[in-house]
Design brief:
Shape: globular
Radius of gyration: 23 Å
Helix content: 40-55%
Order of helices and strands: HEHHHEHHEHEHEHEHEHHEHEHEHEHEH
């Protein structure tokens, strides 16, 4: 991770233990917390509508206390695991450690191995909060499941990459991305539209552990992310020889969705998928036509609207959304992205790639980019910026009051947020672009 000295104000992510939400999002999977009391509730409280099958206060937990700090809590963890099998009907258990467990140094790997030797579906992951954030530990949890659980089924597979049309998708991080459910559903629909079969692993579109067991059968992997999740596809490339195609940001609207689908289509056929070009083009053309019909309607509204419309936008979000929204908003909404702020504590080695993607958005507009995990500092910068005309801020609930101060419109698109209800809405694809346009202009109309 990138080094960051000092404190973080208005943090937009959680500690490493936040990856329990990755477990919660897998159907019939249960996290077991070897941590202090309240850790799971605190993590769940940061996210929105995030309890799932066994999250938050319902997650089994050792409730690490002072005695456990002195004598260790391994026996207590053994009892918790035993009792979880008796009480909860689960397909997979994932033991995660909090800060106290990490400091004491309980050997949870050896304990979990005892249950693995009894053919129990269980894995262990070292996730003390001080080690990283949940963007990083999401990959650690997925890789632990691959290495400790999926690998148990390798002997049942004669050959890897047997299904040439099957792909593993790694995109939205569950719950960290408020739109993860709708986004994964839309990715799956789009990719199936060009002829692929898709493992999404998380949410209602997933077949749960059966899908996990099918990981080695996939022909290749798709990563949609500026950096988080790359450790997963790198691991699968080493382990099963699966190549991957990497789309660096969230594809929003027609231009970037077509670019994404064409990239995947070409990669798939280079890897022997034998997708029909005629069918893929027909699907993309149909989706694009429906999208631009709605943009025509929007253009009529914009020309006839008699009040002041916004002309510029600021974005405060993680790198994948910032890049995707910048490209979409400039080219398909007609607003000018001004200063944008990336809040995910991006590792230094990926920053140049992100800057390059933003710079390529336009050869006429210079868009200032701030990598600022301290979002309180980002707000201080934004507070001192002045541009002519009406502005919009796309950010988290933290930005609502700032927008009021500046007289800007505000749309809640990121965590944390208590000002918007998101269930299955998506911002990905053709439909996601239309939804973002609706959200922006509904806010504008609401001001009048």
């Amino acid at each position: 991770m990138a080094n960051y000295d000092g404190y973080l104000e208005q943090q937009r992510f959680t500690c490493a233990l936040g990856a329990i939400q990755t477990v919660v999002s897998i159907p019939r999977a249960v996290p077991i917390l070897h941590s202090g009391p309240g850790c799971g509730e605190m993590i769940s409280g940061f996210f929105d509508k995030s309890r799932g099958y066994a999250g938050g206060s319902t997650s089994p937990c050792t409730n690490f206390n002072e005695r456990d700090v002195v004598f260790g809590g391994i026996d207590k963890l053994r009892n918790i695991i035993d009792n979880t099998y008796k009480v909860l009907d689960t397909d997979l258990q994932v033991v995660v450690t909090g800060c106290t467990g990490g400091i004491v140094g309980d050997d949870i790997d050896s304990l979990v191995q005892e249950f693995q030797d009894k053919d129990k579906p269980i894995v262990s992951v070292d996730t003390p909060g001080f080690k990283s954030n949940n963007y990083v530990s999401h990959s650690n949890v997925v890789n632990a499941i691959i290495n400790q659980y999926v690998s148990k089924y390798e002997d049942e597979i004669d050959e890897y990459r047997t299904d040439k049309k099957l792909v593993n998708l790694f995109a939205s991080i569950p719950y960290q991305d408020p739109f993860w459910k709708g986004n994964l559903r839309e990715y799956k629909r789009l990719l199936e539209g060009i002829g692929l079969k898709v493992n999404v692993f998380f949410g209602s579109e997933s077949r749960g552990v059966q899908e996990l067991q099918d990981i080695p059968k996939a022909n290749f992997n798709i990563l949609v992310s500026p950096w988080y999740g790359k450790a997963i596809v790198d691991n699968l490339q080493r382990k099963y020889g699966q190549p991957y195609t990497w789309f660096h940001y969230v594809p929003i609207g027609a231009n970037e969705t077509e670019r994404f689908l064409k990239q995947v289509f070409e990669f798939a056929n280079n890897e022997g998928a034998e997708l029909s070009e005629t069918k893929a083009k027909k699907f993309i053309k149909h989706e694009s036509k429906a999208y631009f019909e709605e943009l025509d309607n929007l253009a009529t509204f914009l020309m006839e609207f008699r009040f002041g419309l916004p002309n510029h936008v600021h974005i405060v979000h993680d790198a994948g959304y910032v890049v995707g929204m910048v490209r979409f908003i400039l080219h398909e909404v007609g607003l000018v992205p001004k200063e944008v702020f990336i809040t995910d504590n991006t590792p230094d080695k990926y920053k140049d790639f992100i800057l390059k993607d933003i710079k390529e958005t336009s050869d006429k507009k210079d868009i200032p980019v701030y990598f600022e995990p301290n979002a309180g500092h980002a707000q201080d910068i934004l507070r001192g910026i002045k541009h002519d005309g009406e502005g919009v801020i796309l950010g988290s609930g933290w930005e609502q009051e700032l927008a009021r101060e500046k007289g800007y419109h505000f749309v809640s698109v990121a965590l944390p947020s208590t000002v918007r209800m998101v269930l299955t809405s998506n911002y990905v694809g053709f439909t996601g672009g239309l939804r973002l346009i609706e959200d922006i202009y509904n806010t504008v109309l609401g001001a009048f």
